[in-house]
Write a structure and sequence with these properties.
The structure is a single chain. By secondary structure, the protein is α/β, with parallel strands linked by helices. The chain has a single domain, classed as Ribonuclease H-like superfamily/Ribonuclease H (Nucleotidyltransferase, domain 5, 2-Layer Sandwich), CATH 3.30.420. It is built from four helices and nine strands. The strands form two sheets. A seven-stranded mixed beta sheet has the order 6-5-2-3-4-1-7. A two-stranded antiparallel sheet has the order 8-9. Strand 8 and strand 9 form a beta hairpin. The longest helix is centred in the first third of the chain and has 18 residues. It is globular and about 55 Å long.
């Protein structure tokens, strides 16, 4: 799993572990990432997870964070998991209160439900953003990495115990000859193109016409 700071001493156990997870997108859709911090019953941090997801929506990022936490718990042998999220939509969908109408979110929801059913115990609760500060910070750090705002690798880091961060060079911009100029407009933070289309995962520079 990408973006994992993991304490081997906390692996496998019959007690509860609690995961605070968060996901975000700058633009919705836009550069997206998730973050999560997992603790044991005494509050000791077992793992911190974060990953850049490319261009996705907020809800896609929220589900990606949940899936990362579920996979981590199963991989490390933890059978009782509590998840705390500030996504009211995802929490209510996982509890069966809301339907999942989105064709993009549906497979993520089904995978999350399937993984949760493999646990002995699974609980999920909603919190306001203030109750998820570290997970929010990790999600934003993942987005920063993916947007080239730090030296860390855009697709997440993996650390064991006190191992050092993995770094990667900032991706080089394509030469000017390969750049494409498209007409469009911005509404509510979303870029709408009037002609042409962009491939998935590219970054754009928006300039205002004089």
């Amino acid at each position: 799993m990408n973006g994992n700071l993991f304490d081997p001493a906390g692996a496998a156990g019959g007690g509860w572990v609690t995961a605070h997870c968060d996901g975000g997108s700058r633009g919705n859709p836009g550069p997206a990432g998730y973050g999560a911090v997992i603790e044991d019953e005494s509050g000791r941090v077992l793992a911190r997870l974060s990953e850049f997801l490319g261009v996705q929506t907020n809800n896609f990022a929220e589900y990606s964070g949940l899936l990362a936490v579920l996979r981590w718990a199963l991989e490390q042998g933890h059978s009782r998991l509590r998840v705390v999220s500030d996504s009211e939509l995802m929490v209510n969908q996982m509890k069966g209160r809301y339907k999942v109408a989105s064709p993009v979110l549906r497979p993520l929801f089904e995978e999350a439900r399937g993984l949760a059913q493999r646990l002995e115990k699974f609980e999920m609760s909603h919190t306001l953003r203030g109750g998820n500060k570290e997970a929010d910070r990790l999600a934003n750090e993942a987005m920063d990495r993916g947007m080239g705002r730090s030296r860390e690798q855009g697709l997440g880091i993996r650390e064991q115990g006190t191992a050092a961060n993995a770094y990667a060079k900032k991706p080089a911009l394509p030469p000017k000859a390969e750049r494409q100029v498209l007409d469009g407009f911005v509404k509510n933070g979303v870029v709408h193109l009037l002609n042409g289309e962009l491939p998935e995962g590219v970054f754009v520079k928006v300039t205002r016409e004089p």
